[in-house]
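R.M. (postdoc): so does anyone remember the format we settled on? I'll just put the structure tokens first.
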């Protein structure tokens, strides 16, 4: 199994953190992992994306041009990365900030109201974990135990008290994701 993922949105949405937690989750599941971030000098408010590769085999390159899954969190990223999803692949998006929803008919499309769900949970900073939960429902590439361990590894010890909140947000995203279209 090899899963090549692009996560893209604005800086400050937790794009890089989501990728890092997913990568650590893969490490905890004894997978080969690549985490390759890309962001502009402006960080917050500018575009950011990260490529994550999880594999049972050695990864030859972190550079990928077509993805099994795209997680899209803003319109600029939709415009740039929708076309890079492999036919039959998965595109997950949060409609908040998306003016033109995905148009392709040859991919599986999922929608998650991550912004709204995180606000309803009382902590908008859990937005990226809600979206991660949606991804794990669409593509269960790592088990929840590995995600828990991945959170412990990626968060500094002073933030470990937030792990239950993050796991609750992941679970909520897992439950609330909506399949919009099948390939």
């Amino acid at each position: 199994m090899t899963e090549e993922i692009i996560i893209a949105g604005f800086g400050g949405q937790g794009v890089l953190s989501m990728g890092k937690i997913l990568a650590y989750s893969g490490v905890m599941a004894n997978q080969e992992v690549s985490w390759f971030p890309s962001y502009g000098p402006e960080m917050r408010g500018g575009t950011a994306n990260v490529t994550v590769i999880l594999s049972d085999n050695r990864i030859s390159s972190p550079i990928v041009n077509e993805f099994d899954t795209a997680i899209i969190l803003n319109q600029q990223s939709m415009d740039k990365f929708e076309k890079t999803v492999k036919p039959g692949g998965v595109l997950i998006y949060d409609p908040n900030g998306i003016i033109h929803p995905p148009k392709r008919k040859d991919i599986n499309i999922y929608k998650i109201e991550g912004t709204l769900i995180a606000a309803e949970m009382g902590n908008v900073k859990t937005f990226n974990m809600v979206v991660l939960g949606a991804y794990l429902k669409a593509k269960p590439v790592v088990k929840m135990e590995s995600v828990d361990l991945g959170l412990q590894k990626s968060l500094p010890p002073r933030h470990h008290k937030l792990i239950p909140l993050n796991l609750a947000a992941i679970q909520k995203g897992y439950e609330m994701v909506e399949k919009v279209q099948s390939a």
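R.M.: ...and that's the designed sequence above, right after the tokens. Also worth knowing: The longest strand covers residues 2-10. The CA atoms of residues 32 and 59 lie 7 Å apart.
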